[in-house]
Amino acid sequence: MTDKKTFMQKFDDFQPSKALWAWTTIGAVVGTVLIGFIWGGWVTGNTAKTMAYDAGRDSRATLASNMCIDNFLAGPDAAGQLAALKKESSWSRDSLIEKAGWTTFPGDSKPVPGAADLCAEHLVAVELSADMPAKASEGTGTMKPGATIPN
């Protein structure tokens, strides 16, 4: 009779060495780390801090830009100011908005970086109708430049 072992018998008899266990574990760890960083979206602590800082800065600029747009359109003579803004060159629009104080939060002395560019970009795309300025100022609850928050 032949002494042929089945697969399960061979599997049951297998006795891996300590070196094989060590290299298998090291390979699994390296594979997990590579897959995690390449495809899994893992990042280092420094990258996470940078991403969080960028997200905070961008969200602050977006908030200031939205306030700028709302306050600009709710202001007196919005149509005339918008026409004047559209006549300016694209590189000088943001400085006009910053000088007007539309992108400065109450209590801050400097405008929010990047907000004026976003505000100008959106305002230039706005098409005002004859009744839009009146609608924009009704009940928006927005703060005007230079206003302070009551304690």
Notable features of this structure?
151 residues, mainly alpha, 0% strand, rod-shaped, disordered C terminus
Helices and strands, in order, run as: HHHHHHH
Low-confidence stretches: 133-151
Give the DSSP E fraction (strand runs of 2 or more residues): under 5%
Provide a count of the helices: 7
* Integer-rounded radius of gyration: 31 Å
Mean pLDDT: 84
Q: What structural category arises from helix and sheet content?
A: mainly alpha
Please, could you describe this protein's structure?
Helix 3 (45-74) crosses helix 6 and helix 5 crosses helix 6 (115-125). The chain is 64% helix and 0% strand. The protein has helices at 7-13, 18-38, 45-74, 78-87, 90-100, 115-125, 132-137. It is mainly α and 151 residues long. Mean pLDDT is 84; it is low at 133-151. The longest helix has 30 residues, at 45-74.
How is this fold's topology laid out?
Layout: H1 7-13, H2 18-38, H3 45-74, H4 78-87, H5 90-100, H6 115-125, H7 132-137
Short description:
The protein is mostly helical and 151 residues long. Helices cover 64% and strands 0% of the residues.
